[in-house]
Amino acid sequence: MKKNRNWIRAPLAKLILAIVILLALSSVLFYYIELRGQENRGFLEALWWSVVTISTVGYGDIVPLSTAGRILGVMVMLSGIGLVSTLTGNLASLLVEQHTKKRKGLLKVKLSEHVIIVGWNPYGFNLVNSLEKTAAQQAQPVVLVNTLPPDQRDEIEHKLDLGDNVYFVSGNPGNEAVAARTSPDKARVIYILCPEDLSPAEADQQNIYTALTLHSLAPKVPMYAEVMLCENREHLLRAGVNEVIARGELSGNILGLMGTTPAFFPFFKQLTGSDTQGLLQCRSLSKEEKKLDWKTFLATVRQHNGALPLALFKKSNQLTLQDILDQESALDHFILELFSSAGQSTQLGKQQPQVTINPPDNQSLGGFDAVMFLQAGEAHDH
């Protein structure tokens, strides 16, 4: 009830209400003064005359003939000019205000299946480019959440060149009100990057708060985070992050392999798609494929499109007490009853994806969800 009263008190609502009252009153008066008793003339024609007169369009198909009707027409025209002009100005101001709020990142993003990137650093461009390369035919919306000033956000938007597919939300992502503006429960995936303007310890601390907030709002959405200090990895995992990558961890491993042979660098570039479309892909297994063993599946795929299957994996899922306890055991059944009577959740968190690289020939595909493979590539000289 209070919300309804606040709506009525709004200036735009008052203006619309005044126009509606003027339309209703002028239509009734015009009908009784000019149209009553005429055949094929009713209240609808009177309403049409009022709308045309208030908007100052003046088609002239219906005109007042009596003195009283003409006086009414003059009053309606004078009132209509002021009200319609004011309404147009208010609508224009509203549009400008909405555009300003959107540029400042103060509006709620009403999207679904979008990608949320919290925090920003120069590595964010590589992340977005990688997402665009691996996306389907339709570009996926990207929501950037940070505290950068508008001019820096404009520069990022220009460099990303995503058009209308990039959105900004301004504010501290650890604040629940700010995080809620990103519609995290409808997102496809969430990435948390380390901001450049904080020390490593402060950046990790902020990311932990952010992960806790987003996980409470969207517990089923996969979340991946970057960490500056390796000792904070476990804290992020406990906060609900699915996987955590330490800054420089993978690059250090690749540099070590390059010490063995420089060929590892062009190999990883082609694999991940640093310059072009990456060769490493994944897809779900069909029902027919799950009936095969690894050897048969490998031969079928190679013969079909030249791709090279590398690994099988089971997707992450929610792990519960029921999954690890024996329902037939009296003790385990008693434990479950204790949780139920106490009103405690039996959710234990998400089980990480289980990957089997280069499985044996007789490995059945029945227990797996998807396959990672190298698509057929062209020869490259380096």
Description:
This protein is of the alpha/beta class and 382 residues long. It folds into three domains: 2-104, Helix Hairpins (Orthogonal Bundle), CATH 1.10.287; 115-247, Rossmann fold (3-Layer(aba) Sandwich); 279-374, no CATH class. 47% of the residues lie in helices and 15% in strands. It has 14 helices and twelve strands. It has helices at residues 2-9, 11-35, 43-54, 67-104, 124-134, 150-160, 176-180, 200-217, 233-238, 249-258, 264-272, 294-305, 321-324, 330-341, and strands spanning 115-118, 142-146, 166-170, 189-192, 223-227, 243-246, 280-284, 308-314, 317-320, 347-351, 354-357, 370-374. Helix 9 links the parallel strand 5 (223-227) and strand 6 (243-246). The radius of gyration is 32 Å and the shape is elongated. The model has no long low-confidence stretch (mean pLDDT 81).
